[in-house]
Design goal:
Elements: H1 9-17, H2 27-36, E1 42-49, E2 53-60, E3 63-70, H3 85-104, E4 112-116, E5 119-123, H4 143-159, E6 162-163, E7 172-175, E8 178-181, E9 188-189, H5 197-219, H6 228-239
Antiparallel strand pairs: 1-2, 2-3, 3-5, 4-5, 6-9, 7-8
Helix pairs in contact: 4-6, 5-6
Length: about 240
C-alpha cells in the first residue's frame, strides 16, 4: 500500500481485520471536494465512468469544463491495499502530465486545466445541449475523411511525444467533425524514454498495433480498411530514427 507508512498501528489492525468499511464518496461529497479545492465554481452531472475514474460536468466562472476524479476504492487498479489515495493521486498526476505534453505539442486533446490530488480539470468538448459523443456511438457521414483525420491525429500525438496505449472508439470523441483523443492515463512517453530504447519502443509499437486493430473493427463497419503497417511506418519515422526496433 503506497501510503501505508502514514497509518498508525490501530488503523493497520482495523484494515487487516476488516473493521473499516471502505466506500466511495457520494456525488455530493465529490462535488464538495471539487468546489473546495477550486477546480470549478459549480458541479453538475456525472458525464461518464471508466475503469478508474468518473468525469463530471462543471462550470468554472461560467465556462463549461469537466473534472476527472480518480476513484479511491472501486477501481480496476490492483496495486496496494484498500486505501489508495496516494496511488490514485499519482495516477491523476501521470495522466494530467501526459495530457499537458500532448496539448502543448499540438495534438487534438482537451486543454488541461489544473490538478489537485486525485482530480484534474480540462476543456469541455461539446455544446450546451450535449457533450461530444464517443466515436463508438456515432454514425459518420464521411467515414473515410474521419479515418484519415484519426490517423493524422495519432501521428500528431507521436510528434508531441506520446503514444496512446489504449486507442479505441471509446477513447476518441467526435467534436466539430474531428477526432479528439481522451483518456491518456496509460500513455507511453517516447520523447524521453527513461528506459532502454528498445524496451520502450517495443511497448509503444505493440500498444499501437493493438489500438489499430480496435479502430479497424470500428471502421470496418463502413467497409474501410485501416493500413496498420502504413501507420506504424509513419510513427516509426517520428520516434525510431535509428531503427532500434
Amino acid at each position: 500500500m503506497p501510503n501505508e507508512e502514514y497509518l498508525d498501528k490501530s488503523v493497520h489492525w482495523k484494515v487487516r481485520s476488516g473493521q473499516i468499511h471502505f466506500a466511495e464518496p457520494t456525488h455530493q461529497e465529490v462535488a464538495n471536494a471539487i468546489l473546495e479545492c477550486g477546480l470549478a465554481s459549480e458541479v453538475g452531472q456525472r458525464l461518464g465512468s471508466g475503469k478508474e475514474a468518473d468525469v463530471y460536468l462543471c462550470r468554472d466562472n461560467g465556462r463549461l469544463t469537466v473534472v476527472k476524479v480518480y476513484r479511491l476504492y472501486r477501481t480496476a487498479h490492483r496495486g496496494g491495499r484498500p486505501i489508495k489515495l496516494e496511488t490514485m493521486g499519482q495516477r491523476a498526476l501521470t495522466e494530467f502530465d501526459l495530457l499537458y505534453y500532448a496539448w502543448q505539442g499540438g495534438a487534438r486533446v482537451p486543454e488541461p486545466g489544473r490538478r489537485v490530488e486525485n482530480m484534474f480539470s480540462m476543456q469541455y468538448l461539446g455544446t450546451r445541449e450535449a457533450a461530444a459523443p464517443m466515436l463508438q456511438h456515432v454514425r459518420l457521414e464521411r467515414p473515410e475523411a474521419f479515418l484519415s483525420a484519426t490517423l493524422d491525429g495519432i501521428v500528431a500525438l507521436t510528434e508531441a511525444g506520446i503514444i496512446h496505449s489504449d486507442l479505441s472508439p471509446f477513447n476518441i470523441l467526435v467534436h466539430g467533425n474531428k477526432p479528439w483523443f481522451i483518456d491518456l492515463a496509460a500513455g507511453i512517453r517516447v520523447d524521453r524514454l527513461g528506459t532502454p530504447a528498445w524496451v520502450r519502443l517495443n511497448q509503444a509499437f505493440t500498444a499501437l498495433g493493438t489500438g489499430a486493430r480496435s479502430l479497424q473493427r470500428y471502421f470496418g463497419r463502413y467497409g474501410l480498411s485501416l493500413d496498420d503497417a502504413d501507420l506504424l511506418t509513419r510513427v516509426r519515422a517520428k520516434i525510431d530514427l535509428f531503427r532500434v526496433v
